[in-house]
Amino acid sequence: MVRAVVCRALGAPETLRLEEFPPRALKPGEVRVSIRAAGLNFPDVLMAAGEYQLKPELPFTPGMEAAGDVTEVAPEASGVSVGDKVIVKMRHGAFADEVVVTPAQLTPMPSTFDYAEAATYLAGHGTAYHALIDRGRIEPGEVLLVHGAGGGVGLAAVEIGKMLGAIVIATASSDEKLAIAKSRGADHLIRYDREPFRDAVKRITDGRGADVVFDPVGGQVFEDSMRCIAWGARLLVIGFTGGIGSARTNLLLIKGASVIGVRAGEAVRKNPALGEARLKALLQWAEQGKLRPNVSHRLPLQEFAKAMRLLIDRKAIGRVALVME
Questions:
Q1: What is the pLDDT of residues 61-103, one digit of tens each?
Q2: How far apart are the C-alpha atoms of 288 and 293, rounded to whole Å?
Q3: Which residues have CB under 8 Å from 254's CB, separation 6+?
Q4: DSSP one-letter string for 146-209
Q5: Which segments of the chain have a pLDDT < 70?
Q6: CA 216 to CA 153: how far, in whole Å?
């Protein structure tokens, strides 16, 4: 029997259930993967609550990314073999002991990663890549302000921004989170509760402000960010874990600034070439040891609700993974 986390009614993580199902037979062109770890992302929480852009038909299994071993390959499924270690990309369905997918959903695991790291890499770092390179077009020497730098996508943005030559200012809610951000390349650290970050950014930049703002938080954080930006700044809207902010058009006009929405997955669906370039770069950087997700918590599959709560309560530093026993 195969275990899977099932959402039968929209709501909090505790409303989901771990259920068992018989394995289903493969159809031509499909591949069976034994999941060894699954990564958690905030959209998983939102999707289970019915608050995400994608609203799967009930019942469904959450989970956008995983890593494991190929155990069966059906006829007409090319480019993959039994025993391959792979990353699995899904819109949902990864919180399970095994999944049935197509070869197009599989990516070879970087040899430098374990399963939990591989399962928490592409979504967070892929979003940061798309935001900073495709959308923000960040340049070496520019000032990058990263909000929520202790979270999964924020920490990925710190890593990639520093690798691309930016001066990185990281904001977070605790010294522990900021210490990890510093270890991944942040040049300046700001704790939200010790100094208004907009004042700190102005102090750090001698009044000039940030060139690029990476914002997965939203709400008041987004609104205050408009008050510490440089001329021509790009404000990258990644998410809204802290609420939905309002753009003050007068501030944007005065600074010649742009507010740019970031949807890494949808961008690839509309332009597959973007995804190919992104994946190639991310895998190369992983193999070179330049990028690695910080997995602060690894919990067994049956503790999925506790794992999701770590994201909701912002107790994770980097990423959280479910590991299969």
A1: 999 999 999 999 999 999 999 999 999 999 999 999 999 999 9
A2: 14
A3: none
A4: ESSTTBHHHHHHHHHHHHTT-EEEEEESSHHHHHHHHHTT-SEEEETTTS-HHHHHHHHTTT--
A5: none
A6: 8
What's the sign of the alpha-carbon dihedral 241, 43, 173, 305? positive
Alpha-carbon gap, residue 78 to 86, rounded angstroms: 14
Q: Note if the pTM is more than 0.85.
A: yes
Q: What is the pLDDT of residue 287?
A: 96
Please name which of 118, 156, 140, 166 lies closest in space to residue 238, comparing C-alpha atoms: 156
DSSP state of 60: B
Q: What is the distance between the alpha carbons of residues 152 and 149, in angstroms, rounded to a whole number?
A: 8
Give how far Cα 159 sits from Cα of 65, 177, 318, Å. 20, 14, 11
- First CA to last CA across the chain, in angstroms? 14
Q: Note the pLDDT of residue 251.
A: 94
Across the beta sheet with 143-146, what order do the strands follow?
188-191, 167-172, 143-146, 210-215, 229-237, 258-261
Number of residues that make up the chain: 325
